[in-house]
Structure prediction request, 993 residues.
Amino acid sequence: MRTNYLIFAAVLLIGFGSCEKIDPNDLDDSGFTHGVFITNEGGYGNSNGSISYLDKDSLIIHNNLFHQVNNRPLGDVVQSVTIHGEYAYIVVNNSQKVEVVDLETFSSVGFIQGLSYPRYFLGIDEHKGYVSNGAFNGLVYVIDLDNLTIVDSIAVGSGPEHMILYNGQVYVANSGGFESDSTISVIDSNQDELIETIQVGDNPVSMVLDVNNDLWVLCKGKVVYGADWSISEETESELIRLNTGSNEIEARMYIGNTGDYFWPTSISASVDRTNILFIESGGIYQMDINDISQPSSPLIPTSFYGFGIDPESGTIYGLSSGDFVSSGYVYRFQANGARIDSLEVGIAPNMVIFN
Amino acid sequence: MSISVSSMCFAQEVDYSIREIKVQGNLQSYYDEDTRREVLDSLILGQFVFLNLAEVLREQGGMLISSYGSRGSLAGIKIRGTGDNHTRFLWNGIPVNSLTTGTMDASLIPAGFMQSVAITKGASGVLAGNSSFGGAIYLDNSPEWNKKYGFSMISEVGSFGYRALMPSVLLSSKNVQYKASYQVLKSDNDFLFVDTYKSGLPEERRINDSLAQWAIIQNIFVRLKGNIHIDMGMWLQEKNKDIPSVMGSYQIAPANQSDRSFKSYFKITKIYKASRLLLQLGYLNDSLHYSKLSPANENSYLIDSHIATSSLFSRSEWRWFINPKFTIDLGVHTEHPRAVVDSYGMVQKENRASLITAAKYRKGSWIANIGLRKEFNQYNPPKPLASFGVSWKSKNKESLFRGNISNKFRIPSFNERYWQPGGNPDLRPEHGWGGELGWRWELNFSKNFSNQLEPVIFFQKIRDWIQWVPSAEYWFPVNQDLMISKGIELNGLSRIKTGKWNSKLIYKYSFTDARQADSDDSANFSNVIYIPKHQVFIGGSTQYGSFSAGMNYQYLNSRFTTIDKNPVYKLDPIHLVSLNVAYKYPLKQFQVEIYSRIDNLFSYQYQMIRSYATPGISGVLGIKINFVKNKQLERYEN
Prediction:
């Protein structure tokens, strides 16, 4: 039986080896270190999540990058990717792991396991990282990056998602997961301890720092259904500005409309970080950090599953998830909202990061 | 009523009353000259008493069994490129597809409980009814009036902790017969597999995949004076199945599904001089509990879903034999489904009725069938349906040409209309048409060497095909697409008798081209996922006295799992070989049979559904003990 398995594995490797491979001539000398990574969730339960890579110099897009380099699927529901040092940390939610790849070659150098519902990775220093985990009672796992093992855990709110490190403090957005939450957990990254819990709007999910190092928190709002599945309670989405020196809320505003059945999940900042951009039902909106209300019209009148902004060029990448069973698309826009082009990527693209 | 043969491995009864069978046959079986209908009788089913229907049909070839891996896993039947919810299942005339999903989990049907299983591919929407785009599968129980009493016990043990037991009993007077079978089955399903989704391709043992199931079926058949037949039956079963994680998972989120199903019917048939009246009532009650624990907190459920459904069904049919050439059927069916589902928010119920009429005309070698159907319901009934079919048999009976065309429909399931959030109560029924042309050619070189070959061409079109599409927060169904399926099937059967050896060779090939689009523009067509273009089945068996043996080979070509045919997510071709041997010992009135079966003989590693592991080579060893007391064969006189 084992021999048959090995033969099958060899045939599989040969089979995939004969598929399209990355052509080194298509890349610049920096490997995968000057480009755009797009995480494609894939369809739940189908183990067809992937990573796409756009080389910014050649403008060639390489889909299914992990599979092509490592000759095996990445896994089920690729949630996020984070670049830290010489490596990329790919969180694969329903395979309960974080794959670690070398940025030069994209070869896997190891993986982190022991996770149950991982969402995001955050690099703290050369030897330590955090992973947010949990659909209910949330944890932030402390990871030893030298041997990719869990060494500690910190209890936070429900459904921890995005994390930001600033001035030795890690801010964790507790999005509620399968329930509801309205807090930001603050962790001392030197002591690996929870030091504060900040009350914000319902279900905070994404955050970004502006030019003043204020923290902008996107809260998607919540819907509560009655026993007959009619909506018994609905709260609006909110944008909240937090002073990272005092951890006090300085401004908050409602965005979107109740009853629009849209719960925003993405926020980013312009290149100079004087503007905040976020997705709402009408599209991608751009707002000066000194404004106190949502702009009346969007910068880009198309609502996307996720988006990101190139910190070098200001190019806006909008991610269209499609039908979750076929390729999604990335739409690129100039900083002023003018459309550039579109690129076919993997199934259900949800996040874009830049290297 | 189907051919009376043993379901408990008693000796085969001689069929002496074709007219009686046809008189009492259901609509589809009576008007079947223009369709391809395969019947698995009790001799075939008796070889697989503990297999569920999905496993039996996989051993017959010619259709796609979409199974999630091990014994007892969820299994749907896809025929001619259509979906799981396009195959209609009926048990003794009662429709048993799930009200909530519209599908039928074929792993819930113990094949050994049935006297016959008839598969009609491309069944008529007029005759078979709702959800029959791909076809209809008829599960029937029938009496064995040649038996006085009998008892059988079947026991099996096999790989991966499999064990099963099935006692059966038959008691019969001249005009009353009672039959009962009880089945209990367990399997650990802890097979080894190579996890091709993990670094290093480790060999792992499957966990959280165990199965425990029991079932009982009882039937009472009564013959009264005045040519009145009463049939009644009940079928109760419970299945508890752990659900494994997908390949590549590093932590197990324990999931479990338990199904409980109760089915019952009462049927009375009166045969007049030139007509037949049938009245039937059926009652179904099903419940399902699916739960998935949070791996981080075993006291928390990620999912905890309860479903309870019930349905009352009635069937009234009158068949009038106007003359030897002309027959008319009139029928009224009613259905009253009811569902209590956590995610519906309230009890959902409905009333449906169908008015059916069909006619058969014979002239010489020609037979023509025509049918009309009108659906009524409170929701959104489909338009009236029609069907037409014709067959011609050569005088030497060596050739049979046939063709049919029929409207078909599928009423949206309760989940598609009422699931919250996302359910769409404004969904329209799927509707369309299908047809086929076939030619059956019998070539008998001698009485010891006979051949049958049957090529078929089919075509199917479904409009308002319901698909679930994502919004920002949840999925919801829409009438989005057009689906077209066309193809060719080739079915062959050869029988050879040499000396004391009786051998049989079955070979089947199908080519299926299934596509979907959101318009009629052919440039927009994309792939229907998981449908193989090519399927091959070759089955050989031989018998010498008390010894019998057989071997089957199945091939599915590679299948795409995305509609844009992304080659990265393509599943490799599948090659499966199974082997079976048996030996019978007659001991006075007892018969003892010892048998063995090996599945996936060469331990081929494959995935039927992407990222769900399947077992390699596995074996079963079984023993059957039969005891029967026959009556003298007699014809029933009214």
